[in-house]
Structure formats: structure tokens, C-alpha cells
Amino acid sequence: MSRRVVVLGAGPGGLAAARALRRYLPREVTITVVDRADEQRLGISLLLVMRGWRNPAEVSVRPADLLRDGVSFLQAEVIGLDPAGQRVHTDRGELPYDALVVALGAEVVPEMVPGLEEAITAGAAGHFYTLGGALQLRERLTCFAGGRILVVVARLPYKCPPAPYEGALLIAERLRDHGLSDSSRVELFTPEPQPLAVAGPAVGQQLAALLAERGVALHVGQELSAVDTARREVVFSSGTREPFDLLVVIPPHRPPAVVRAAGLVGEAGWVPVELPTMRTPVEAVWAVGDVTAVRLPSGLLMPKAAVFAQEQGEAAARDIARALGATVPEPEVSGRGRCWFVTGAGEAGYVEGEFLAEPTPVVRLYPPAPEHFQTMEQELAAWSAQGQG
Questions:
Q1: What is the spatial distance between Cα 102 and Cα 19, in angstroms, rounded to a whole number?
Q2: Residue 218 binned pLDDT confidence (cut-offs 50, 70, 90)
Q3: Which fold would CATH assign to domain 4-106+255-323?
Q4: SS3 80
Q5: Using one digit for the tens of pLDDT, what is the confidence trace for 42-75?
Q6: Weakest-pLDDT range from 203-207, 241-245, 297-301, 341-345
Q7: First vs last C-alpha separation in the chain
Q8: Pair 338, 350: CB distance under 8 Å
Q9: What is the pLDDT of residues 287-339, one digit of tens each?
Q10: 299 φ, ψ to 5°?
Q11: Exposure on the CB side of residue 212, measured as CA atoms within 13 A
């Protein structure tokens, strides 16, 4: 009987795992990737959509086009996991497995903050963490006539750690471009003690200086408790209330319901895994990417970013292949990665470092420059071309 590997999720981590598994395993081992969506996009692309520089078709790829060589793609909703019986239940039938990779990412849940969903529905608030959210926020910014814009990180952790700071800078630039600087103000609130705390104090100081230089006010140590749509106010756990004309929120994140229901979530609120194998405590189940909790030597969690999901996907594939009897290199997770940091039209920097370094991550923020923006655009174009050609 042939072996079966099922990969849940066709984001960067799931795709990396599936491609590596196909390289490492013989053809009699079947590999199936399951995702409810037939389109995928990188997180940074949503910022470009929000800013009006890209349309959905320009930033989307189809997983089936990326998995032509010996990997099946099933567009289906995962409705249940049966780790004991080693089966995945979908709305298109059951999938038995010998090895399962959970790469279902993190879902955004505005409803976790009282009043936030109501504010979004009323047009008083928005976010750029889904394609629909980015498009709606773009429209709200187009109609914005001036006033106070609050960019608020609701909870930690969240996907794409630099994104709130990028979003605030891009919104401030848009206001300048439309002559609204004198009548508007952009302010950013975060629960962290400094911007991008996981990257260390030096990067935090650089980011704070960049925000101040571009006219964005920074408030740290503020956790969002509620949104009062009628009064157009946010309420923080400290009791502070802040008025707004437009609220841009980084919504709370959590593992998908199917992962929580299967008992895969640990004390940190995410799926615990071992490094470098990416094995979960559950037999025959591996997990990669945003759904996981990877604890750094500093005690903080590994940032939820595509670059780390891809490395983890490769590591999980190696461990699965070895578990199924293939002779392949041992899994490795270095924790090295780079994230682009868009600050304006034709301008980007990047954050790069070794996040598993001891005792704390070694990270640098490279200042914005046109050449970085060009390199970023080339990489995004190459990624999109994979699924459009």
C-alpha cells in the first residue's frame, strides 16, 4: 500500500513543504495539498493593494499552478481532524494520511475585541490583513477628508510584524500626497514596550525615529480593550480612551477553529513544535508557519512571517521523508530571515537577522532606499510569475 502525505494550507509554508516532499519522496508516495482558497498572496502585497499600487490579480497566484509536478491540489474546506484515526475530514470527503503537515496559518478575528466588528461594518474602522480588508480600507482612505487616524495593534502575536509600522507610514504618505497633512494626524498604538520588540532595542529605536521623522506619533504599552463606534473612541486596558476619525486595526490572531478543536494548541495559544523537525506532540503530525509557537532563546515567539514558514516547511519535509524511510539531509532551522519594510513610493528598507541566536536575536534594520524597493519588486514579480505562467 502506498504512503500518503497530506499538507493542510497552500500558503508559503505549505507550498514549501509540498515541493520539498516531492523532491525527497518516491512517486508511489502520494502528496495532497488542501486549501479552501484557489488563490494565495504574500502578506506584503496586501499593503501594496491598500496603498493603491496593486490590484488583486497582480499579487495573486494559484496553488494548483505551483504544484504541477506530482502534487495534487484539493480545493476544499477542512472541517475536522482525527489524529487518532489519522484522517482529515473535508467538505469533499475524507483523506487518510501517514503524515500530516498543518500549515493553516493564523486567522484574523476582529470579534475578539468588543465593538471592533461593529466599527468595521459601520465603515469607522478597517484593516489590511485580508484581501477584502485591504480593498475596503483603500476605499475608506480614498474618501477620507482629514482628521485623526489611529493605527492600533490589538493583540500579540500577529502576522508580518513590520506591517503595522509600514501601514502607518504608507497612510501618512498618502495624506501628504493628497494635501491632508495639515488637517490630519496618524498615531500608532502597540502593546509592545517598543516597536518590533523581538528584533531588539536598536531596531526599535530606529523604527521610532523613522516614525517621528515621517510625522507618525508612537504610543507603546497600550493594549486595545474595546471600540466605541458611537463615540468614535478606542478604549485601552489602561482605561485610556482615544478619539478617532478612522481606525486602522491589526486584528487579533488565533489558530483556525479546526486546529483548536483537534487539541493541537498548547499553552502559548498556538501549536507547539520541536526544532528542527517541526514535529508536534501528536503522532504523525507536523506543523509549520503562522499556526505554530516557536519559542526563541530570548523567551519571545518566532515572528510569524513567510520567510520562516518556508524554512520550516523544508525542515518538516526532510523529517517526514526520513520517517518514511528516505535518505535525505537532516532537518535544519536556522532562524535566519529577511522581511521587506515598505516606507513609501519607490522606497523600502528591510529587517534581517538571526532570530535563534543566543541569548537574543541579532537583527538589523537596513534604512529605506530606492534600490531595496526595486529588489523587492523583482522578488514579488518572480513569485507571482510562478503561478501565472
A1: 15
A2: very high
A3: FAD/NAD(P)-binding domain (3.50.50)
A4: strand
A5: 889 999 999 999 999 898 989 988 887 899 999 9
A6: 297-301
A7: 36
A8: yes
A9: 999 999 999 998 889 999 999 999 999 999 999 999 999 999 999 999 999 99
A10: 95, -15
A11: 8
Between CA 303 and CA 245 the distance in angstroms is: 31
For residue 276, how many other CB atoms are within 10 A of its CB?
19
CA distance 95 to 114: 38
> Could you give phi then psi for residue 23, rounded to 5 degrees?
-70, -35
Domains 4-106+255-323 and 109-253 share a fold: yes
> Quick check: 388 pLDDT over 70?
no
Burial level of 156, CB count in 10 A (0-12/13-18/19+)?
Answer: middle
E strand or H helix that includes residue 234: strand 233-236
Binning pLDDT at 50, 70 and 90, where does residue 1 land? low
Compute the chain's Rg from CA coordinates.
Answer: 21
**Homologous superfamily of 109-253 in CATH?**
FAD/NAD(P)-binding domain (3.50.50.60)
Let me know if 244 is exposed, middle or buried by CB neighbors in 10 A (0-12, 13-18, 19+). buried
Q: What share of the chain is helix, strand, coil (3-state, %, to 5)?
A: 30, 30, 40
Residue 159 cell numbers, joined: 502576522
pLDDT the model gives residue 386: 64
